[in-house]
Amino acid sequence: MSTRKSNLEDLAILGGTPSFQNKVHVGTPNLGNKTRFLERMEKLYQSRWLTNNGPFVQELESRIAEKLGVAHCIAMCNGTVALEIAIRACGLSGEVLVPSFTFIATAHALQWQQITPVFVDIREEDCTMDPEKLERLITPNTTGIIGVHLWGRPCQTEKIEAIAKKHRLKVIYDAAQAFLSSHQGRMIGSFGSAEVFSFHATKFFNTFEGGAVLTNDDALASKIRLMKNFGFSGYDRVIYLGTNGKMNEASAAMGLTLLEEIDSLLFANRENYETYRKCLTSIPGLRLLSYSEQEPFCNYQYITILLDEARTHFHRDHLLAVLHSENILARRYFYPGCHRMEPYRSYFPNAHLLLPLTEQMAQQVLVLPTGSIMTTSDIESICHIIRFVLQHPEAIKSRVAEWTRWEQNAFLKT
To answer: Do 15 and 65 sit in the same domain of this protein?
Structure first.
């Protein structure tokens, strides 16, 4: 339940009551039908098959592969381990080109295996890797490229793969945010040597915690299946170096339950996006990243706005503070960029000189709450606050710094 603001004094940051009684998150988990999930849990209890490639995992892999039109889906315990295994299975080493404007796990999955991430700048249109900046960073030590599909929007796969083919590089895609989205009519999951999904609880489709590698390469799929289960090819037979990346049966049961309701979840995301688009039009200095109307499939999972301070006279972080005070927990994705986080900040102290658009977007992007629990009224209230605040920037600025300091101190105490 939310309340509308009509005067400056109504804003929580200026002493008013927060618009939302409970905190509203960017990614509140979808839970699916409780009865159907508990039925699966009963079967799990009866069988006592909790992990190790059980029937729920096998069914989930089969259904996802079929839905995406990909030969192989290998379910994993989480998206990061899935990406690490895909990187190792593809034989990447030395240097790998990757955007800095991504979740830190993309870079960590490389560095964790002593592979150097070389950060590439992004495109202003959609914040994905800029192929025009890619080729100049290739060196004799480059072995691959990791493209990132961002916020349900595909990156420039054709250009990336053309460059990779020219230089004989492997291509993997971090598709953590792009489940059930398409690119030029082709489902994401079938590009490159492999694509990696996250099914973390904050994703619109989740398995509590989980992920998967999708590939059309039979040999690569066989290798990944060995690697995610310690290299076992039989009961007592280990033929390859591996680790434990397996998804458990309870996680797969949640995934199967949500798959049964996936159309309604996608519909809710689309409706939320359309409401935001209607309510946030014609605000000077604010741009809502749009989704392609030409694509037959899109998850509409993220509501992403960019705030141009030169035109709004209000910094993105000031708006973030106002929204947080209203219990609207918007997020700065992907602030401040991997290159400004450790250990990369120490390894590459001058990386920002090659990443001007990454630097710019890291200061402008804000992701707003959406998901199946959001109502049209909730979204209209959020948009009303944003519009109201941007109409009175000077009157609010003086209180924002005070709130930001308080919030940071409160966070440090938790």
So the answer is: no
